[in-house]
Structures are given as C-alpha cells and as structure tokens.
Amino acid sequence: MSVASASDDPVSASSSTGPASTVSARTGSARTGSARTGSASTGSASTGLGLTGPALTGLALARGEVDRAAHLRADADWLKAAWADPATRVIVVERGQALCELTDEHAALAFTTPRQAPAGVRFLLGVEVDGLAYFGVAGALPESVGPGVRPAYLREAGPLLSDRDAGLLTHAVALANWHETFTHCPRCGSPTDPFASGHARKCPVDGSEHFPRVDPAMIVLVTDSADRALLARNAQWPERRVSVLAGFVEAGESAEQAVEREVAEETGITVGAVTYLGSQPWPMPQSLMLGFRAAAANTEINVDADEIAEANWYSRDELAAAIAAGTIRLPPPVSIAHRIIQSWYGSELPGSW
Ligand SMILES: [Zn+2]
User: Fold this and answer.
1) β-bridge mates for residue 163, sequence order
2) What band does 10 get if pLDDT is binned at 50, 70 and 90?
3) SS (H, E, C) 260-302
4) 3-class SS of residue 164
5) Cα dist. 321→10, 171, 227, 230, 276 in Å?
6) Which H helix or E strand runs over 319?
C-alpha cells in the first residue's frame, strides 16, 4: 500500500478496513542484523551503518501504566467480584469514541461504573497496583456525565491524555474495533463468542479460537547521502500534504523487506541500511505502525503514479522554508510519521495536517 497508508493517516484511517494493498512483492535481503530489536525507550538507534538518530520515545499512543493482568482474564471468580465492585472503572467505546473530559491542552477519560455501563462485549483492561480494576465495554455511550465531557476519538484525545489514560483508551479502542468487526468464525461462518475477558473469541460450532487482529505496517524516513529526507504525497491526499513512505507488511514478509519493497515500488529508490526506530499501535481499525529509517542508495525519484502524486528530497532548511511558505503540510504530532520526521529534523515541527 501507499505512502503513509491509511493506517497512519488521521484523515482516512477511520474508514480504512484493512490492508487493501495491491502492491506486488519484491523480496530483498532483510538487513535485520542492523535493526534495533529491543525497546526503543532509551538511547539512540545507532546501527554502525551510518544511520543514527534518537529512538522514538513517548509516542502518543504507545504509552500506558496499568498492568494488563492477563493472568486474571480467565479467573471467573475474580472477574465477577471486580465487576461487582463499585470502585471499578469502565471505559465505554462506541464506534471508536469514548467519553472524555477535554480542553485544548488536557484530556481525561470519563469513566462509568459497572452499574452504569451499557450492554456489550466486556473486556478486562488491567489492574492498578492498589487493585483498582479497569474494564472496557463495546456498547452505546452513556449520557454525558459532566461539564466538558463529550465523545472523542483516540487520535484527538490520545495526545492530551495522561500515560495511564492513553494506554487504557488505546487498548479499549483496539479491542472494541475488533469485536465490532470480527464477529463470525472464518472457518464455518458461525457467530463467535468472546472469551478470555474479551481478549479472544471462540466458535461454538468447531471450537476454533480467534485473537485480535493486528496489521503491521512499516513507515520509513528515507534519507540520502546529503541527509535530505524523502517526503511524498499520496495521490488521494489533498494538495500540500506530505509524509514519509508507509505501507502494510505483506504476508510472509519481514518489516525490513516491506521497507525495501515499498520504497522501491513507490519512488524507485533502493534502500541500503534499515534502522528500527520504534512502534505505535494505530487501532483505527487495527494497525501497528513500525517506524524505520533507511539510507537511499540512489536519489533519482520515479514515482508510482497510481499511488504517489509526487515525492521530493528535502534538506532541513528546505523543509522549514516549505512549511513556513505553506507549500507543504506535515502529519499531526499524534502520528508516528510526525515523530519520525521530527527526529530527523532535530527540533519541534508544526503539524498542520
Ligand atoms: Zn466455526
């Protein structure tokens, strides 16, 4: 799929139904030897191959503080007691939205109690150190519960939420979207039932178990030998919007292979060293964005006109000038795309998607 595929595109992500990729496979050698495979929470992503840069930390939707407590998902007695506890907090998600208390600078989840929660698939989100339990319910949003409280999408509220609330809402939206979409058994077509406290579904006819679907997508900043960045505009985007290249990882393909293939298909650029930067869930509806940097082996751009309207190399000065002149607009800070571009640029950038 194309540049900043729907998965990381805050405009079209809500309507994305999956990796409707039509790209052909081109397998290259995966340069996994150079990739950072551990946590991207510390230090820099130096590969020894000439590509260095800060690892991505504090990504808006890659935060969280609450223990997911997976060991309790099958504990019926504990679940029953937790749901009966009036202190238990519930996040209701309806079509990707949850009630939040929102201002321009801050957001907080507006929880309901189990008694106030609507009917719907219920899932355990986690447990605080002090034993406070959090559940999600995929169902009708309750009436607004206070001043300043209204339904909000993850991409809007996410960056403004605390680490705790951002993690809870990302988790809840991912599960709610999955339950809304994957309701039937792919083997026999029967309706499936949630189990494992909403973290899986089971077919009552053939017993098959099904788990939340996550579509990995790579997103990559390609730089040339002069450290210019390759930014492109998807043919379906409005004028001026540009971003780094992105696309879904295909079946039987590594993320690094997807980087090589997508960059070559979309721009004609061959990449050498590929460096992993970090990841962010983008559950609108079900993506996991894997961020990379890659070094270009050539600079002559040949765009795939079906998917890419234009692609250009930008020095830092050229990027700053283009933004100041209003000739390009970057993705918003909630996106990993913005953070990748910013990590290359070296300081804050406006996001005016
Ligand atoms: Zn079945």
Assistant:
1) none
2) very low
3) HHHHHHHHCCCEEEEEEEEEEEECCCCEEEEEEEEEECCCCCC
4) helix
5) 24, 39, 17, 16, 28
6) helix 316-325
Q: Are 92 and 122 in contact (CB under 8 A)?
A: no
306 Cα to the center of ligand 1, angstroms: 39
- CA 184–ligand 1 middle distance (angstroms): 8
Q: What separation in Å is there between the alpha carbon of 49 and the centre of ligand 1?
A: 49
In angstroms, the CA 339 to CA 56 distance is 7
pTM, rounded to two decimals: 0.85
Per-residue model confidence as pLDDT tens digits over 55-85: 798 899 999 999 999 999 999 999 999 999 9
Phi, psi of 10 (to 5 degrees): -65, -15
CB atoms within 10 A of CB 212: 17
**Ligand 1 centre and the CA of 182: distance in Å?**
12
Please give the distance, rounded to the nearest whole angstrom, from the Cα atom of residue 177 to the centre of ligand 1.
21
Residue identified by tokens 């290259």 is 28
- Cα 202 to ligand 1 centre (Å): 8
- Ligand 1 centroid–CA 203 distance in Å is 5
Tell me the C-alpha distance between 273 and 205, whole Å: 49
Which of helix, strand or coil describes residue 348?
A: coil
